[in-house]
Amino acid sequence: MKINQNLTFNNSEGIFIGSQTNCKDCKIGIYGVPYDGTTSFRPGTRFGPSAIRNISNGIESFCPQLNLDLEDLKYVDLGSLDIPFGAPEKVINLVKQATILLMQKGIKPLLLGGEHSITEGAIAGIVDFHPELIILQLDAHADLRDEWLGSKHNHACVMRRCIEILPSKKIFQMGIRSGTSKEFKELKEKKRLISHQSGQVAKSLDKAMQPYLGMPIYLTLDLDWFDPSVMPGTGTPEPGGFLWQDFAAVIEVIKKHNLIAADIVELAPKLDHSEISSILAAKIARSLIMLLSLEK
Amino acid sequence: MKINQNLTFNNSEGIFIGSQTNCKDCKIGIYGVPYDGTTSFRPGTRFGPSAIRNISNGIESFCPQLNLDLEDLKYVDLGSLDIPFGAPEKVINLVKQATILLMQKGIKPLLLGGEHSITEGAIAGIVDFHPELIILQLDAHADLRDEWLGSKHNHACVMRRCIEILPSKKIFQMGIRSGTSKEFKELKEKKRLISHQSGQVAKSLDKAMQPYLGMPIYLTLDLDWFDPSVMPGTGTPEPGGFLWQDFAAVIEVIKKHNLIAADIVELAPKLDHSEISSILAAKIARSLIMLLSLEK
Amino acid sequence: MKINQNLTFNNSEGIFIGSQTNCKDCKIGIYGVPYDGTTSFRPGTRFGPSAIRNISNGIESFCPQLNLDLEDLKYVDLGSLDIPFGAPEKVINLVKQATILLMQKGIKPLLLGGEHSITEGAIAGIVDFHPELIILQLDAHADLRDEWLGSKHNHACVMRRCIEILPSKKIFQMGIRSGTSKEFKELKEKKRLISHQSGQVAKSLDKAMQPYLGMPIYLTLDLDWFDPSVMPGTGTPEPGGFLWQDFAAVIEVIKKHNLIAADIVELAPKLDHSEISSILAAKIARSLIMLLSLEK
Amino acid sequence: MKINQNLTFNNSEGIFIGSQTNCKDCKIGIYGVPYDGTTSFRPGTRFGPSAIRNISNGIESFCPQLNLDLEDLKYVDLGSLDIPFGAPEKVINLVKQATILLMQKGIKPLLLGGEHSITEGAIAGIVDFHPELIILQLDAHADLRDEWLGSKHNHACVMRRCIEILPSKKIFQMGIRSGTSKEFKELKEKKRLISHQSGQVAKSLDKAMQPYLGMPIYLTLDLDWFDPSVMPGTGTPEPGGFLWQDFAAVIEVIKKHNLIAADIVELAPKLDHSEISSILAAKIARSLIMLLSLEK
Amino acid sequence: MKINQNLTFNNSEGIFIGSQTNCKDCKIGIYGVPYDGTTSFRPGTRFGPSAIRNISNGIESFCPQLNLDLEDLKYVDLGSLDIPFGAPEKVINLVKQATILLMQKGIKPLLLGGEHSITEGAIAGIVDFHPELIILQLDAHADLRDEWLGSKHNHACVMRRCIEILPSKKIFQMGIRSGTSKEFKELKEKKRLISHQSGQVAKSLDKAMQPYLGMPIYLTLDLDWFDPSVMPGTGTPEPGGFLWQDFAAVIEVIKKHNLIAADIVELAPKLDHSEISSILAAKIARSLIMLLSLEK
Amino acid sequence: MKINQNLTFNNSEGIFIGSQTNCKDCKIGIYGVPYDGTTSFRPGTRFGPSAIRNISNGIESFCPQLNLDLEDLKYVDLGSLDIPFGAPEKVINLVKQATILLMQKGIKPLLLGGEHSITEGAIAGIVDFHPELIILQLDAHADLRDEWLGSKHNHACVMRRCIEILPSKKIFQMGIRSGTSKEFKELKEKKRLISHQSGQVAKSLDKAMQPYLGMPIYLTLDLDWFDPSVMPGTGTPEPGGFLWQDFAAVIEVIKKHNLIAADIVELAPKLDHSEISSILAAKIARSLIMLLSLEK
């Protein structure tokens, strides 16, 4: 699907289970960004979108937690963005354009990464539509560096960039357990860190986000938020992470809120031959489609 | 070992650690059913029996929890059933015959799967000997469909079939976290679902089964009951599962009860190169042999 | 794409590189048959079609040997057949229907397996259109058993079935290096075996097929024809096989002939983490599309 | 680096992140012992030291828990010991010599195994410097056999040997969940077993070690102490183990104590293609360097 | 099967396809030696015997090259030797005893390794029965070191030891392509090296062995003789090796000779997830059983 | 080793077997370029240098073909270049600087990639010292695109760039078997393609290069020149490639010529768990060190 000279969606790698391939009547739109150009440790997130789509054929359409069935929802899978080589700025800009395209059609975007740096593009595309946007970041890493190896646009700096773009400067960070001394100092000073312990998500997240009921929320889920035991297939696994049960608690909180867009990033499927990482990511995608379908 | 024209046990793939190869003085009999003919997602459970046997050479014979040693017990490993192609009915019938054969000799069967559909055969073989049989199912999936893709005998329908066969209609299901809307409705209405949260097994299971002390119990353990992190080597891993500690709690409950047969199904060992799935399954087999050895 | 009550093509797993998703102006039609229900050793060919499609994005569209470019050709990828459980007869019948559907539209079929037993369906669908059909089988195994484990329709009997169906009884077998004593006796007596040595393909195949120039040819390629070193990702690898250079020689011969349909079967991609098996299969698919595009 | 006729350190396989390659100003010294000669189940711990070093390039230098940065510490990585074939006694003696060498220079040793039997050498080297030494063993196995398969020096007997050497006979064992009946009897009688349940480490360990504040502590960490889900890459994984959060609790206790040496043993990296085992081991090594840097 | 105080065969890991489990009427006896204690690079040959047995269930019993069927032969699989820790001398001595045991019963031994050092034991056991024995070694490495890392009994010195034992000092070495300068000098001077090029085996081997028709031959096959592409699952793969076609040529020569014993060593199955290495080794074992069955 | 503000060699990942870590008396200098920023298919060549170094400990120092021993040669391993994110121009420029640095010291460079685009930097650094340089490219792909996805500096365009830089415009390409129609047309017109068939290397290469005896030669070896069976661990394997025997023929030709620099690129080691790809690459590195040591 060629949108304009630069923006092309490639759907040769299949679709997420139950998706339409056109936007008709859809309020939710999935697209992939198979980009891993700034990965510093173990690459391979470019295969994330196709792995999530492929494995999605093995999951049930019904979610007992949300009591919803994908078969009752309408959502489109546009395919994956065709992306160029070289500087990440171009990719981030394409993501911005794609996000704007969906927002203009009244479609809530769900991005499948690719590495975390793509989130900057999504936020940049959304702020004009939702200037009061609040970001909820689930991640093992703060990603708050201002610059890294001479570059400002990469997975290690992405949340710094997002904060700069965001008028509200409102961002919650949960699960951060690796970073520089400076990053941890900032997290503490700005009181952005909600919790960093598996099993304690429900209360602390609910409390922190209570004041923002009804406000537009963007969820960015770096899959290394999870413990390496349940998510080995990611570039930078960090011991001491979260479990599905914690994400189920996140779902409980978010379903009270106004989720308007989300991304799932940093799945590097070839690092996990058992495929449990891709299966987890696909189940999360199912949950997010359902959460995005809730009208607030 | 050829029993009759149809029933042949093949012991070319080794035996479970400490087993005899003949039934003399044995009260417990292991046999494998290397069948994965109706698997819908990722096949390979046909290699389950040989993987459990092979890896069993690496585990200790002593169990500190039960304070028993395999070296003090007598049990036979008959080998794996030779099974035909085509319709699963034939396989289920062979399992039924094999189970009857053991029951007639006063030997408690422990089946090593293979996919879950084999349980129907075991139950069918046992009901005549124990009409008051109660089934305890540990599983991520309800397996209660009446029919699937035009077939009535497969892993997705197996518990429906078992319920039909069972005079008592008494079945407890624990750990179910994936299924259709209809299945979850039934679980709720029939109050069959004991618990679905890791860490809460001991109390709820004990309470639910209290009224049935002394009754004959069949334990069917679909290994996807476990969390994918501890059991990646199964066809349909489902996030949010149980840990060894939970199974240890199950052991505590079962040891008060009259376990008369059991199966361990859905190990697909080649999906897990680290072999932790097979090691877990072998440790469970050790526990079940010990539990089956307890006279009630 | 639902054709009728039984025949549905599922295109959720992507398409072969450069394919259309509708039949318009197409003379060649790809479809997958993700069936491995009678596999006797190592299963997993159900993932063959999606692996070939997925990896096809990594190959060039130009073929220097045939001096053709996929970009200049028109071909449709219909997706993969939805298939039922149980007896293989149903699957074989669906393949027959799908093949007839394409033949009626004047589209030459290219099947992506799945296990070898599906070839029976394709031949059954084609014979009415081309009663004088000749089969060229590249395979490590004769597949000439009349019955196996009580079944007549499976990968070990498939060529026996095809011979029965085929009015001409004309079949060439190349590369057979494993089988029963009886099968090898028949191969010798019937003079069906063309060659069984890597490096000697060109001459012997050319000579054997010379008399049939212009006749309709069906190529069935069981990927275990290849040596395990170049094709580890197949259920029953057999040492002493063929190399790409041998297949290139096959291409040279076939391009003089009237190829009207073909299949590529027995790719079990998860057995080969390096993916060289899928890459080889995709390159073969590219060659076959081009060979099918040559008008005779 | 050749120390004397028998003792040679080989640094061809790289260094732990941030290490010096000479001892100047260093109070902490890392060295590897790539030995797996008595492994009884799955070998491969010989690759442990190089895997930890290699993967260490992917971890952050800052530790938020200890609020320390490797960049502020001085430590040497001497490389790995060159070791001979044959009887383990020679290897154990080399480890002893290497440990003495470091102790004489006032450098606290951190050994990277290799299998557990090497600990005997380290303890033997330290006792003359610290006769009041106390050992804290984190392990799934008691390793208290007196003899195994006719040998006294191997991974199954290592703690028996250490107890014999140690004047204080003071040893704490945590996490033991597999062993012989005799071993468990001894653990109970001697009250050496601190705890064996994930989630209960902090209190029980703190209490048990309280009386020994200021005493020299040796930590030997057999990585199979961890649960197989977070540490699949070890020779003898044992279900029901500990998580990173438990080790974080261990850190909290140890940082009050006088840690004077430590080892990390039984990493078999090639068993875990996802590399989460090596990443966990490297993060532990980072923690231990920091703990060894604390002056008491 | 316990033979005497030291010699025990363990058959818990299954049997080679078609084997008996007792010696009755057998002229050929298989046994495993799961030893990898002196491996210098990548260990894991201890799993060789079980891998060969396990995978043997997937191969045909008929061999078209030799026109023989395993079903027509009688051979026993005794299981694998129980072996101690520590110095390799003990293992080599056990192999010697086991070999003598078979020779005394008139049974030709086929050893499944384990590493190459076990060959010394087999030769030591046979020389008294066949003082005029000739060894044919297929290998990538000369294994002619006199001593290595202070030891005389290991895989790098094994052929030196065999030559010392052998009264005839008659040994042919084929495929050697890696070693020390000194080893290659000796090979050249002694004219022991037959050929080292794939595709040239038949003639040179036939010519070299022509003078020894009727003499007792021992074939020792280090699987790294093969090219890494067909045999990745070995500890020390060496590029530039041989293919199945070359081994087929070896078969053609050996079948004229009086093969009285053989070994297949250095299979490290876990290094090759595709299992093509084990499949090749099993096919070779089938060939050797057949060659050993030929009466001369 | 920090050379200047931008040029830093990191030697934390070990050294090639037998290397010095300083330049003293060395005529040959190895350095790694762990760059895979423009990889279009499967990334991971960033791990190439460390894999080659790590596995090099398992190979013999003696080469029977060249009759040389690494122990008799002097060469330095400088470590791997620290490289920035973003545009590949920076990396290429660093490679240029590093190459110039070595040339100025009279040291012949051997680069370990990393992807192929780094060759441009090496050529750019050498041309001033050797304006009459001739390039010999062994590769499966022509890499002659002028631009790709909007970029001029990447692996698909690297030889186009090299030709532009090279005053002599003299380049030989061997093994090219994949590319665009336009690339093949150019190869044919310019007569740059020497041979594309395994087994025919010796004659054609010798003849083609005969006129250039004594001229400075740069060998760039894209490892996908090899057949996928012997080199599965590369990003874009292409069926129909070359074997070790062919590279041995290349060695025979090059040893008559004046090799002044070389690179080994496109090893993606994590794609090949058997490690035969890394072993092959290390053996090639050994050969190239020896060839670079020959004075002409």
Automatic annotation (TrEMBL), chains A, B, C, D, E, F:
UniProt xrefs under SUPFAM superfamilies: Arginase/deacetylase (SSF52768)
Biological processes annotated in GO: putrescine biosynthetic process from arginine, via agmatine
Details of cofactor binding: Binds 2 manganese ions per subunit.
Enzyme class: hydrolase
GO molecular function term, any single one: agmatinase activity
Family: Belongs to the arginase family. Agmatinase subfamily.
Protein name as it appears in the record: Arginase family
